[in-house]
Amino acid sequence: MSMPPSPTAESFRVSDSAARRLREILDEQPTGTDDEPALRVSVLAGGCNGFQYKFALDPPTMPDDSGFPAGEARGLGAPARRALLAGAELDFNDSLMGAHFTVRNPNAASSCGCGTSFSVE
């Protein structure tokens, strides 16, 4: 199994529609902290194809986090599995089938029907 090159902050992108939805979600969060939460994007072992995406609002920044632009918000990810996201884009789709975030990942050899898990060769 060959792994893609280690990503840079620019190699994982957030589409305009995903950035707008993220801003809406952050604007709905309770205020009172000095540090606005960031969108943490992770890749975990599991799911029906071997890996699964995880998204969370996470205020603390870990020492090994790397950031990526997310419109007016910020995104975070730990470098351990970020190579699996190199060249990928987070998008937000709002259709008759429902509204959800999706990841367009050129490293995925296959993915499940719901789009939350994927495999690599």
What does this structure look like?
Mean pLDDT is 80; it is low at 1-10. This protein has one helix at 16-27; strands spanning 13-14, 38-45, 51-58, 66-70, 73-77, 89-95, 98-104, 110-111, 117-119. 10% of the residues lie in helices and 39% in strands. A hairpin with a 5-residue loop joins strand 8 and strand 9. It is mainly beta and 121 residues long. The protein has a 6-stranded mixed β-sheet with strand order 4-5-2-3-9-8. The protein has a single domain, classed as Hypothetical Protein Aq_1857, Chain: A, CATH 2.60.300.12.
Salient structural properties:
121 residues; three-stranded mixed beta sheet; globular
Fold topology:
Layout: E1 13-14, H1 16-27, E2 38-45, E3 51-58, E4 66-70, E5 73-77, E6 89-95, E7 98-104, E8 110-111, E9 117-119
Parallel strand pairs: 1-6, 2-5
Antiparallel strand pairs: 2-3, 3-9, 4-5, 6-7, 8-9
